[in-house]
Amino acid sequence: MGRALAMAASLLEIWVAKHRNSYPPIVINITDGEATDSGPVPQATALTDLGTEDGKVLLFNCHISSQLTAPIVFPENDASLPDEFSRVLYSVSSLLPTSLRELARSENFTLGPTSRGFAFNADLVELIRFLDIGTRASNLR
Asked: Looking at 9-140, which runs of residues are DSSP E strands?
């Protein structure tokens, strides 16, 4: 996972330099949560330190686990997350900007001011809704 996030940062470093006036990129990482190489904290930090004039790169993480738990989508804290893997991914996930929080609320998600772009054990429907919030073109600005 560390290598994948480092590669994304490498690609986006070039992109943000060429597109300074653009909405910041959103990176969506879908994973089982267990980094088999290194990271993901330093690589995720390097990624989210990049930005445009409109803000920092946003990192959304979707942790798919074999644990039999209800989906947790856009949480405000890590209190309900069941393991260290999910808490680490939550910690490196971006806070939702106001425009995305409003969009998610319009889709009946319950959010607070510190909700992050994170999902744990999202089923197919929740995964699609999560991806939609992060990729819908109408949510820009």
From this structure: 26-31, 51-52, 55-56, 58-63, 72-73, 118-120
Contact 93, 60 (CB under 8 A): yes
**What is the SS3 assignment for 37?**
coil
- Per-residue confidence (pLDDT) for residue 33, from 0 to 100: 66
d(CA 32, CA 25) in angstroms, rounded, equals 23
What confidence score (pLDDT) does residue 37 get? Answer: 75
Structure tokens at 17: 């330099």
* Closest CA relative to residue 95, chosen from 68, 62, 123, 57: 57
Handedness of CA 43, 3, 40, 74 (dihedral sign): positive
39: left (phi > 0), else alpha (psi -120 to 50), else beta? left
CA torsion sign, 113 to 117 to 119 to 125?
Answer: positive
d(CA 89, CA 4): 14
Asked if 100 and 139 count as a contact pair (C-beta separation under 8 A), the reply is yes
